[in-house]
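Now for today's protein:

——
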Amino acid sequence: MFPVAPIASRYPAKYHCKFMLPAHSHRAVPLRILRLLLAALFLFAGSLSLAASLSAAPNAGEILPLDQVRPGMQGYAYTIFAGDQIEKFDLEVIGVMPNFLGPKQSIILVQLKGPKVEHTGVVAGMSGSPVYLEGKLAGALSLKLGIFTKEPIAGVTPIQDVLQPEPSSGEPRAALQPFFLPGDIASHNALPSGSSLEPIDTPLVFSGFQPGTLQQFAPQLAGYGFVAAQGGTAAPRADDVQLHPGDMAGMVLVQGDASISSACTVTAIRDGRVYLCGHPFLKLGSVNLPMARSRVLTTLSSDLASTKIVNVGGPIGAITDDYLTAVVGKLGPPPPLVPLDLTVAAGGAEKKYHFELVNHPKLTPLLVAMTTMNGLTQNALYGEGTTLRLQGEVRIKSHSSVHLENIYAPGDTLNPDGLPVAMSVQNVFARLFANSFEEPSVEGIALRVESTPGRRSYTIESAWLENSEARPGDTLRVRVLLRPYRGAPRIQELAVRVPEQIARGATLRVLVSDADSLTRASRGFFPGGAGSEGGLEQLISLLNRERRNDRLYAGLFAPSPTLLWAGKEMPNIPLSQIGVLDGRPAPGGLQILRESLASEDSAELDGPVAGTISLTLVVR
């Protein structure tokens, strides 16, 4: 028996059939004949319902080659405007635009027809809608023409480009990198808004994220080409994997106590592979990201940009390719994600959050920052005007863990106080993934942010040495006057030791400063980037040795050159060796500093320190 009801229920009611016995019939019908008649009617109804559903979703195996597409051809496409019902809308071919997307990458220009699409226009999330001409699959809806247009005109990616052959085994598909013009150039040279074809927006659905968080990261999101849309999450269902052309699915970027995912329309399903969007998500090439079902609540019509309001459903497989003409997924188990556990503490109370993020060099740094910012600021324990202490650990497979510890005091700007915490975490992940040695496999992230009322910060106001002269081997005390925010000044004492090998008569420099100033003085123009040339483990070691912003530092500098090369510090290097290395044709990040850090001391405070003072010391 065919599964008539489940199939027929996915498509519009006009495809359903009803059968009734004549109301005026009053003769008695023999029971045996009545049973035969009812059985025949049920079989006939089932076959008609099945035929109607098949006509509503033509055989995806029949495709229409691009060279058979002609202007004036009538066709139709499928998408979801609300609920789970796949709806049909008509269209007409305007023409074919050869080489539009690139060499041998043409598009079909169509005009959408019907009351619904003429009201909504081309809707964000509609990309990937299967387009049929002469009952055959011709392509995927992928482009829209301008904004505020009076007619819904769209571009269609030809089906042979969507279903392009897979790369041979062992040869990953090359990623296509997006190209962005500088804002001022783009604004002066852009085509008029009504005459340019551009990809239909792919909604990036945020669930559990507040507008304040999205606003802080809006420039980065815009740089990726994302259109942020608020949505929800739907409980996984047994029929999530039962996809049809016109359904919606997308890739999961974050899930857990908050989620981020994309949403596109399914073009075709072949041999367990799902073809979506008809255009790229980020042109990432070969990827391994979770794929989830998306369920439409409704479609919001707008003269500026209509969009679908979406709930993200259960996982159904993995996104494997993100290229110029489609996003491709594979049904089955989803790939693993990176767990992120965030604890927010204040006044003896704690709140814990759990998230899971994709492990991808282009996405993970931004996702970690957004998730941390949202989890920190959008709860009852967080309040502006508080000092925040960050402690954390990043576990990396086959390597040492990265340890995070810093303090952030509220500032006088309008940015949320939690933003520096998020940006600091993002910076660590950006440096991890930017290393040129290997891609890190992050196994887990644990962050703890403790909030203390008030602004606890210090400014270096003055500093002096107990003696302006010293001998080799002496330990010299340095006194520093610190001015806290709205408080009485305090004196902090540090000590620096003059090395035994320092020549008599030399003039040394004592730098009293915050962590960043001492790092720049001792590591030059690349205080954080060096280390990747020596391998990921060396970079992790460098990150773990970085100075903390809640410490006051005093560094003693000697007038001997330091060579920074391939992530290594070589102080007191002879000038003859510097000359040899400096003559290399490609020194690879070679940097020479005129001073060497001979010794340093630090003192921990209960808030961040800012400022720098330089003192002179003569060796007798």
Remarks:
- The chain has a mean pLDDT of 80.
- The chain has four domains: 4-56, 74-163+196-335, 338-453, 458-619.
- Residues 74-163+196-335 form one domain.
- Residues 31-56 form the longest helix (26 residues).
